[in-house]
Design a protein that fits this description.
The structure holds two protein chains of two kinds.
Chain A (H helix, E strand, L loop, with lengths): L3 H10 L2 H18 L9 E3 L14 E4 L3 H26 L27 H7 L17 E8 L8 E12 L14 H13 L14 H14 L3 E5 L2 H12 L5 E5 L4 H10 L2 E5 L4 H14 L11 E6 L11 H11 L2 E5 L14 H5 L8 E5 L9 E5 L1 H10 L1 H5 L5 H15 L6 H23 L5 E2 L4 E5 L3 H13 L2 E2 L1 E3 L10 E5 L6 H11 L2 H6 L1
Chain B lengths: L1 H6 L2 H19 L13 H10 L21 E2 L5 E4 L2 E5 L12 H14 L14 H14 L3 E5 L2 H12 L5 E5 L4 H10 L2 E5 L4 H17 L1 H6 L2 E6 L11 H11 L2 E5 L14 H5 L8 E5 L9 E5 L1 H4 L2 H4 L1 H4 L6 H16 L16 E4 L6 E6 L6 H17 L2 E2 L1 E2 L14 E5 L3 H6 L8 H21 L10 H10 L3
Parallel strand pairs in B: 3-13, 5-6, 5-7, 7-8, 8-9
Antiparallel strand pairs in B: 1-2, 2-3, 4-10, 9-10, 11-12, 12-15, 14-15
Classes of the chains: A alpha/beta, B alpha/beta.
Protein name (chain B): Serine palmitoyltransferase 1
GO molecular function (chain B): pyridoxal phosphate binding; serine C-palmitoyltransferase activity
Pathway (chain B): Lipid metabolism; sphingolipid metabolism; Sphingolipid metabolism
């Protein structure tokens, strides 16, 4: 209809969620300028119970959401939902043009593939701010990157590439902790040699013809790096979890998994067929209670004793920035004879004085952790995952892992990249580059966190973790923050529901050893969007 | 009311009084639950905790488990492959179009490496989308003549993430019995009702569909929200034969079920241009709701993709677990895949011709003539799977000593739903590209193939046929000594 563009403009540009955002900005200005007038929520600093187990202070904080902010956030979501229903109604009656893809004419009488409500959130909330995600890049994902410029003429339903490139955007989103995402240097040269020698693909599984000598070299190196007897490498980090947990546990076993575990761990636990019980995030009392109840009462209904109990935790939780309380977990594990599965996807290479992960950070013995798993995507600039542990464990995985028997092995240049970068971190290449990068990363982390905290932002997580979540709360702020930062040539990651609880949307910064002090200063200065508030 | 109180008979009042007293007593007495018969003391709990012994984390593995020691390949895994120091002809990798050591593919991968580095350092949603990925997706969609395609960074994860994205608890999936392991994991993750039909048996499938239709008529409200899917493979990896796609499409429209087609083995191989089994049978590609394939066989890269209409594929961008929660494909591998697609499009003649060997005594060839990978199975089983596997392993070792590389098809015995019988895989399609580049080999590729056949026949004569009664497996040691005695 002729007035549909006008209707859409009105709804997109001037809808009431914008008004709520403006109101909330004024409210926040008020709170910041007169803190004594409003009771801001208490700061939960987690002081561990068994401080004797920790060699250095363990400081984590998760500030509670202020009441006013929570109320305004819920109001914002409420208004958006009402508008969502209104738009759906208009779309159904063809008053507004519908961009949503439709089913084929021939299959109209089939059972609908998606339920309408499943996609309500996607259609009405996610679509508004969709331009903050899936931004294509066309350079190395290093400290600075080049983004492909894209515009949308129909409010994010479709995107077009203008053909221009936004150059030198500061990259605060890629998981490039040690700065190994580079196309020059020792790693890239070695990868080039490996491509010349082996080619790009393998086309066979590990146990058939896909076991190259470079894989054997990689596995020995990883075992040495972690300080374990033996290790095995896989082609995808997600698949390492989802294919190996089912090989280790089965029916009659119990998996105790942290509340905020990654989707791959949850999927692996589900596929294994074991009973799963969830304990509160990083809460050792909750874990101990579950362990005691499990051993004392046995399996539900039959009360047979459990065959095995597996505790599944992560090194650094990527949405919270918190570090697992490993000394306490290991003490519990030894007391109750459970097994520990540690997923170091984000912490390997990023924590610890020698970059050996969260075990190194706490100064513990790697032999205490039964199964050490990690990925090569983050700190090593490659792709894939590994599992390290005792020789019996790895022998068992070689024969019974789904990945070894059915999935293709890792690509040779990727394996070579891991070998070279790991040698650099260990210092075996003869330079001090690895030690320099590790030190730079921890300095950057401390500096950035302190700077943001001094500016008054609410930052979650451990003081030493390079993942820095900054709270935004309001739905409209998610979109605004992402877009404003891009206008100022900074690429950030914003996350909302369903990756986080509904009122706790956040922006997440990933510090890298490749970031310089100037870049961090620029980012923290520009993250302070006060000038926008005042312009209203 | 007081008057009624006086007028009531005495027994009535006494009864009421007793009832009131009883109620008061019940209200104030201690409640007890039937389950509370055991409340353990702290000491008993500590004792239980002390006594509990878990099973060892992993059961011990014997040193001579067949899958324990992998064969080590030095150098590129192409036509001539060096296994355990010995150079063999490779009949075991799934390198159907021979693109693993193609120079153009390598050059493109190197160019991409020099521009982007190796890893992407992030999932697709957070600065992990490169322009190479977008280009590969649009090329794949154009090649397969569909609206959209989506790439995964691991072949196994492709169909295993695609199925649970659409099919949830309460939905019904009809699957062929010979479905591969990744499909089985996808089905397990989806928590739907799974109904297996006999391999390639359309009557069995129709019977199941009819039963479901009757169920639907009993409960139409539930039927209106229960989605139904058929999952089949184009070319089955476990049996090396093709699914009857035209009949499946007819059943689709008759019973209103959607079809998901897994084309890992047939992509790049079947059909006039390599578009897979839809082109082979001449079926309209829009009739298939989702086609999934991995790029690790014909395309000689790493990863997988799904293609279909935007209505179907776009959903996976937010709900495909292996897509959203995993790092994206390294750009050099995506560039290699693009170049491989270019080569496939330029030269549609590089397809597999048949390699039908004669029936060797003791061995049976399983698979359709135009399949790129065939299975050779024992004619008579010895009755025990372990001894069959050992026998086949001996044949494979024998052939490797004579410079022909074969491989034993491995399965996770306890996890597979319908375990295929022991066999080994002979990848005959490899030589198709030899015909194009036979100048690289000193000998004629057909000679090499014949050498393979001869070795296999010889091995079978010596090992299989020479064992008269297959249940006497103390002859195993005799076999081994006989092999080392006979020198070629």
């Amino acid at each position: 209809m002729s007035f549909s563009p006008a209707v859409r403009y009105f709804l997109e540009k001037h809808d009431w969620s914008h008004v709520v955002w403006l109101l909330s900005c004024r409210a926040e200005l008020l709170i910041n300028d007169h803190p004594h007038l409003f009771s801001v929520g208490s700061v939960h600093s987690h002081v561990p119970n068994n401080s004797s187990l920790y060699k250095k202070p363990f400081v984590e904080s998760f500030e509670e959401t202020p009441l006013l902010v929570a109320v305004l956030t819920y109001m914002g979501y409420g208004i958006l939902t009402i508008f969502g229903y209104l738009r759906d109604f208009l779309r159904q009656w063809n008053i507004e043009k519908c961009h949503v893809a439709r089913e084929r004419e021939e299959q109209k009488d089939f059972v609908p593939l998606y339920q309408d409500f499943e996609n309500f959130y996607t259609r009405n909330l996610y679509m508004r701010i969709r331009d903050n995600w899936n931004r294509p890049i066309c350079s190395v994902p290093g400290a600075k990157m080049d983004l492909v410029e894209r515009v949308s003429h129909d409010y994010n339903w479709t995107f077009e590439h203008t053909g221009k490139v936004v150059k030198d955007v500061i990259n605060m989103g890629s998981y490039n902790y040690l700065g190994f995402a580079e196309n020059i240097g020792a790693c890239a040269d070695a990868a080039v040699k490996a491509t010349h020698k082996y080619g790009a693909g393998v086309s066979s599984t590990r146990c058939e013809m896909g076991n190259l000598d470079i894989h054997e070299e990689l596995e020995q190196l990883v075992a040495r790096f972690l300080g374990v007897e033996s290790s095995m490498a896989f082609g995808m980090g997600f698949a390492t979890n989802s294919m190996n947990i089912p090989a280790l546990t089965g029916k009659g076993c119990l998996i105790l998994s942290d509340e905020l575990n990654h989707a791959s761990l949850v999927l692996g636990a589900r596929l294994s067929g074991s009973t799963i019980r969830v304990f509160k995030h990083n809460n050792m009392q909750s874990l101990e209670k579950l362990l005691r109840d499990a051993i004392v009462h046995g399996q539900p209904r039959t009360h047979r004793p459990w065959k095995k109990i597996l505790i599944v935790v992560e090194g650094i939780y990527s949405m919270e920035g918190s570090v697992v309380r490993l000394p306490e977990v290991i003490a519990l594990k030894k007391r109750y004879k459970a097994y520990l599965y540690l997923d170091e996807a984000h912490s390997i290479g990023a924590l610890g004085p020698n970059g050996r992960g969260v075990v190194d950070y706490f100064g513990l013995d790697p032999k205490d952790v039964d199964i050490m798993m990690g990925t090569f995507t983050k700190s090593f600039g490659a792709a894939g995952g590994y599992i390290g542990g005792k020789k019996e464990l790895i022998d068992y995985l070689r024969t019974h892992s789904h990945s070894a028997l059915y999935a293709t092995s890792m690509s040779p240049p990727v394996a070579q990249q891991i070998i070279t970068s790991m040698k650099i971190i260990m210092g075996e290449d003869g330079t001090k580059l690895g030690a320099d990068r590790l030190r730079q990363l921890s300095e950057n982390t401390t500096y950035f966190r302190r700077k943001l905290r001094d500016m008054g932002f609410i930052i979650y997580g451990n003081d030493d973790s390079p993942v820095v979540p900054m709270m935004l709360y309001m739905p409209a702020k998610i979109g605004a923050f992402g877009r404003e930062m891009l206008k100022r040539n900074i690429g950030t990651v914003v996350v909302g529901f369903p990756a986080t609880p509904i009122i706790e949307s956040r922006a997440r910064f990933c510090i890298s050893a490749a970031h310089t002090r100037e870049m961090l200063d620029t980012v923290s200065h520009l993250a302070n969007l006060k000038p926008i508030y005042i312009c209203i | 009311m007081v008057q009624a109180f006086y007028e009531a008979p005495a027994y009535h009042l006494i009864l009421e009084g007793i009832l009131i007293l009883w109620i008061i007593r019940l209200l104030f007495s201690k409640t007890y639950k039937l389950h509370e018969t055991y409340k353990l003391t702290e000491k008993e709990k500590e004792d239980l905790i002390e006594e509990w012994q878990p099973d060892p984390l992993v059961p011990p593995i014997s040193k001579d488990h067949p899958s324990l020691n992998y064969d080590v390949v030095t150098g590129p895994p192409s036509h001539k492959i060096i296994i355990n120091g010995k150079e063999c002809i490779n009949f075991a990798s799934f390198n159907f179009l021979g693109l693993l050591d193609n120079e153009r593919v390598k050059q493109k991968a190197l160019a991409s490496l020099k521009k982007y580095g190796v890893g992407t350092c992030g999932p697709r949603g957070f600065y992990g989308t490169f322009d190479v990925h977008l280009e590969l997706e649009s090329r794949l969609a154009k090649f397969m003549k569909t609206e959209e395609a989506i790439i995964y960074s691991y072949g196994f994860a492709t169909i295993a993430s695609a199925i649970p994205a659409y099919s949830k608890r309460g939905d019904i999936i009809f699957v062929d019995e010979a479905a591969c392991f990744s499909i089985q994991k996808g089905l397990q993750a989806s928590r739907s009702f799974i109904k297996y039909f006999k391999h390639n048996d359309m009557e069995d499938l129709e019977r199941l569909l009819k039963e479901q239709e009757l169920e639907d008529q009993k409960n139409p409200r539930k039927a209106r929200v229960t989605r139904k899917f058929i999952v089949v493979e184009g070319l089955y990896i476990n049996t090396a034969d093709v699914c009857p796609l035209p009949e499946l499409v007819k059943l689709k429209y008759k019973y209103k079920v959607r079809i998901f087609l897994e084309e890992s083995m047939s992509f790049g191989v079947l059909g006039e241009h390599g578009r897979g089994v839809t082109e082979h049978f001449g079926v309209n590609i829009d009739d298939i709701d989702l086609i999934s394939a991995n790029m690790e066989n014909a395309v000689a890269s790493i990863g997988g993709f799904c293609c279909g209409r935007s209505f179907v594929i776009d959903h996976q961008r937010l709900s495909g677990q292996g897509y959203c929660f995993s790092a994206s494909l390294p750009p050099m591998l995506a560039a290699a895949a693009i170049e491989a697609l270019n080569i496939m499009e330029e030269d549609p003649g590089t397809k597999c011709c048949s390699v039908h060997s004669n029936l060797t005594p003791g061995l049976r060839l399983v698979g359709v003539p135009f399949a790129p990978a065939l299975h050779l199975q024992l004619d008579r089983s010895s009755g025990s799977r372990d001894s069959d596997m050992q026998l086949l392993r001996n044949i494979v070792d024998y052939c490797m000593q004579r410079q022909v590389a074969l491989t034993l098809a491995r399965y996770l015995e306890k996890e597979e739903r319908f375990l295929p019988p022991p066999r080994y895989v002979n990848v005959g399609g490899n030589h198709a590209s030899w015909v194009g580049c036979s100048q690289r080999f000193q000998s004629d590729p057909w000679d090499e193939l014949a050498k393979c056949k001869n070795s296999t026949v010889k091995a079978v004569e010596l090992i299989v046929v020479a064992v008269p009664h297959t249940d006497q497996y103390d002859l195993q040691s005799n076999n081994n000594s006989r092999r080392t005695d006979k020198k070629e």
